[in-house]
């Protein structure tokens, strides 16, 4: 049975037994930058018993290359410039830093060309024309992955597959499966950060029209994860031993992706979104559905309905609220406002922030403590979701139920429709 877990990004605020235990963390993802030297020392103590995966730092390199392109460059120019810049990057430039933390595993060979194209805004029509090139690149990365694994037999080396749609993901899965790679990572952060919409998707060599324009982020994520495992199966290889979802932490996408990867014994995730969302006043919830909710909207409902309160059982919310309880009198004061609450109302010092300190945003001890509590809460929600998926007797039924409740409770119909279609892509003909 597959086991699903979340790896916490190593930061001074996350490297404590209390945080890791309270979030059901499966381990720690360590970024290879010298600024995080303090976290290296933390790993020398009791935390070292945790699974440690060292990242390769490619995310930052991808951003720098994309940002270096002239805004006026057309797609053809961007494709060529990225190909040159990505090809000049030393693929082992971060290896010494990765190995310095004495990890159990590390993110290994990766061809960042496609990721740079995506970040640079190269259009889908141009990308699909590069299928044969991407196939060659994935085969090359797979061979490099085997070589690196042989050089570090005491560690697990994750080879990074690259894809942008079902077809390129199928090719990537087939390439890595054919080569004999046993641990795979794929990046999904760029997909989930994509705010574009689409009226068609490329699937199985054909363009399929959609009934209406839908958000691309959910559809692309579903296409890629389904395509990869279909390609791997076509290679006739046993499922990989490990699979890591780089940059995927959105609550609703966990059951979909978990179901697609159900044949893999060890499936892990990481993302900085639980931390970034907490800083911006976004909380993750499991009831009534796997949703992201804005703190000011939660408070608005509390003002309108005295029976509705934030009664989260996680240790982070409980500990914070014990020291900074809700002020019911101030909550009722907000009812006299003639306008809806906004994010600005929750700045430290404002009445709304005094009413519910857990939702406060801003500098100072209170703002920092509230942000840390929300980050812990978001990680707890993700960790608990994956723990329940690991224990599910019928994973397909559990994932389908999560999708159904999301569709019924999504704040906007198009998000629900996109997630429903994403589930269809992942689950159709895939019992």
Description:
The protein has 2 domains: 58-93 and 108-271, no CATH class; 282-383, no CATH class. Helices cover 50% and strands 15% of the residues. The chain contains 20 helices and 12 strands. Helix 3 (58-67) packs across helix 6. The longest helix is centred in the last third of the chain and has 28 residues, at 364-391. The relative contact order is 0.11.
Short structural description:
With 431 residues, the protein is an alpha/beta fold. The protein is 50% helix and 15% strand. An 8-stranded parallel β-barrel has the order 1-2-3-4-5-6-9-10.
Question: Mind sketching the topology for me?
Answer:
Elements: E1 3-9, H1 17-22, E2 27-30, H2 37-42, E3 51-54, H3 58-67, H4 75-87, H5 95-100, E4 105-107, H6 113-119, H7 124-128, H8 131-151, E5 156-161, H9 166-179, E6 183-187, H10 189-192, E7 197-203, E8 206-215, H11 216-234, E9 242-246, H12 253-260, E10 266-270, H13 273-279, E11 282-285, E12 291-294, H14 295-304, H15 315-323, H16 328-333, H17 351-355, H18 364-391, H19 395-409, H20 413-427
Parallel strand pairs: 1-2, 1-10, 2-3, 3-4, 4-5, 5-6, 6-9, 9-10
Antiparallel strand pairs: 7-8, 11-12
Helix pairs in contact: 3-6, 8-9, 9-11, 11-12, 11-20, 12-19, 12-20, 13-18, 15-18, 19-20
